[in-house]
Design a protein that fits this description.
142 residues, two-stranded antiparallel sheet, 3 helices, globular, DUF2634 domain-containing protein, Sheath_initiator
Amino acid sequence: MIPEMPDTWREAAGGYTEVLKPSLTWWMDAEALRIRGYAAEVQAVEQAVYTTLRTERYKHVIYSDSHGLEIADLIGQPRRLIYAALCRRIPEALLMDDRITGVDGFYLDEQASQGHDLAIGFTVHTKYGSLDGREVISGVGG
């Protein structure tokens, strides 16, 4: 005899309600390299975007496989390929966070893209409001 399972896990839990935890974390002062108090809501999401985009995915054991951005394979590739890949990979990386509802408005920042650097801008939509994001990738090819 195989037991029958209900259609959804919610039915199996019998009145289960989802409770979201508050968006509160330590505030990281990236310029001073110090932890200074707490960050909540928009500031906490902004910090999550910062750390996610600066962490190579699958490289550090301390982070889960859903944290970080895959960039290493793009170094030395043509600018157009990198731009196209980042327009796909940045939303993939950031949408792992349930506080982020969307990422769009990608543009190439020509003035900041000098030498072997590629600067890309975008807008991050969160449940607390929107943020302007910017990422600079070094080691870009022709």
